[in-house]
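To: structure desk
From: M.T.
Subject: fold request, one chain
Message: Could you run this one when you get a chance? Sequence is below, nothing fancy, just the single chain.
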Amino acid sequence: DGLVVLIRGRGYSVRQLSVEDIIEVFVARESIEGTLANLSASHLNEKMQQKLENLKLEMEEINPEISPEKVIETGSRLHNLIAETAHNTMLYKFYQELCTVAALTRNLSKYTSKIESISRDEHILIINSLISGNREDAEGYMRLHLRRTCERIVSSYLQKRTTSHHFLHHAEAG
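Reply: Done. C-alpha cells follow.
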C-alpha cells in the first residue's frame, strides 16, 4: 500500500502521511466501522454488555490530561471489540487491513490530550448506544466520532507542520 519506502543508502522507512492519506483512511474507517457498530449492536449479548460496561468504567476513570495514551489504548480495544462482535467476516477483514494504516494516524494525535479527551467522550456515547442495542445511534455516533477525529487530526497535523515550517524558516534566516 506504499507505506514503506526504500530510501537510497538508508534502508526502509515508513513514509510521511499526507493530509489526503489521512482523509482517505478516515473515510474508509467511517464507512466500515460505522457499519460494524450497527451490526455489533444487533448482536448484543450478556458477555459483550459486560465488556462494554467495563470499558466504559475504565474510560470514565482515565484523565486524558495525564494519560492520553490510555485513552488511545482503550479506544482501540473498543473499536476491536465492535469489529469482532459484528459477525461479518468480510468487513472484519477490511477492518484489519485498515488497522495498520489507522495506527499511523493514531500516532499523529498521540499525546494530544484535547483530542483524546473528546475522543473518550465520543467513545462513551458509542458504548451507551451499543449497550442499549440502538443500531442507528451506534452507527451514527461511530461515523460522527471518526469524522470529527479526522478533522481534529488534520487540524493538529497542519498546525504542527506550519509550526515546524515556521521554525525551520526562522532557523535558516538566523
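Reply (cont.): The chain is about 80% helix and 5% strand. Let me know if you need anything else for the meeting.
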